[in-house]
């Protein structure tokens, strides 16, 4: 979940209070960081297409992500347009719209569907020769250009621990919601080369994973 408190799922992170607990990936909070990294990688970026999944999260989380994106874009002098895709069969149309819009790059909003369909999204970006910023290193391992975010697989493992505790009698209301504490920056140099992009050495030095 992006923000379970704002979406009304729990009373607070430390004391959920109801029948729901788990992990959060800090969806809205990380968007400015991602856009800043994209701008650092491609300084000339001025027009960005935001690929998003309108039905991925509750209205409050979606609203917070848009608010964070708008603030970051304004600060960096970047214009952007939302391009929605709710289902995999809408991906082709979304990328065709992006490719015809003279955008400098794609900025992917978090979505469980996007993560599951990451191979297809990476392939579409490659086909249209579009630099793309993703929210998990798994996209970069498949050929995506750059990603920054929490370790999704680690969050899944932590969720399994929650399930184990609850099955053994723990009350969800008493299990604090966990937030990620470590974040990964991954860059694919092979993809950068194919897109004729020179990755700044200062950015490479901060990367947790560099694929050559």
Question: Can you walk me through this structure?
Answer:
This protein has 212 residues and is of the alpha/beta class. The protein has one domain: Rossmann fold. 42% of the residues lie in helices and 16% in strands. It has a seven-stranded mixed sheet with strand order 2-1-3-4-5-6-7, sandwiched between helices. Helix 1 packs parallel to helix 2 (59-76). The longest helix is centred in the first third of the chain and has 18 residues, at 59-76. The two termini are 32 Å apart.
| Largest beta-sheet characterization | 7 strands, mixed
CATH class placement = Alpha Beta
Share of residues in helices? 40-55%
- Order of adjacent strands in the largest pleated sheet: 2-1-3-4-5-6-7
- Number of H/I helices: 9
Radius of gyration: 18 Å
Strand-pairing-aware structural class = alpha/beta
Beta strands, count: 7
Q: What is the architecture at the second tier of CATH?
A: 3-Layer(aba) Sandwich
Present the secondary structure layout.
Elements: H1 27-41, E1 47-52, H2 59-76, E2 79-84, H3 91-99, E3 105-108, H4 112-116, H5 118-127, E4 132-134, H6 137-141, E5 146-150, H7 152-167, E6 183-188, H8 189-194, H9 201-206, E7 209-211
Parallel strand pairs: 1-2, 1-3, 3-4, 4-5, 6-7
Antiparallel strand pairs: 5-6
């Amino acid at each position: 979940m992006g923000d379970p408190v704002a979406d009304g799922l729990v009373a607070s992170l430390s004391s959920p209070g109801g029948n729901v607990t788990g992990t959060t990936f800090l969806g809205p909070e990380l968007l400015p960081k991602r856009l800043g990294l994209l701008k650092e990688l491609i300084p000339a970026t001025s027009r960005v297409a935001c690929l998003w999944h309108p039905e991925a999260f509750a209205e409050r989380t979606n609203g917070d992500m848009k608010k964070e994106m708008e603030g970051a874009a304004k600060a960096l002098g970047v214009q952007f347009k939302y391009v929605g895709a709710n289902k995999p069969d809408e991906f082709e149309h979304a990328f065709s719209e992006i490719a015809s819009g003279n955008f400098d790059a794609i900025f992917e909003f978090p979505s469980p569907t996007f993560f599951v369909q990451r191979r297809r999204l990476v392939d579409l970006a490659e086909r249209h020769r579009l630099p793309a910023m993703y929210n998990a290193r798994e996209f970069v391992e498949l050929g995506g250009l750059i990603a920054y975010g929490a370790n999704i697989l680690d969050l899944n493992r932590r969720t399994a621990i929650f399930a184990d505790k609850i099955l053994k009698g723990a009350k969800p209301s008493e299990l604090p919601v966990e937030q990620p504490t470590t974040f990964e920056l991954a860059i694919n140099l092979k993809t950068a080369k194919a897109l004729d992009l020179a990755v700044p050495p200062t950015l490479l030095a901060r990367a947790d994973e560099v694929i050559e």
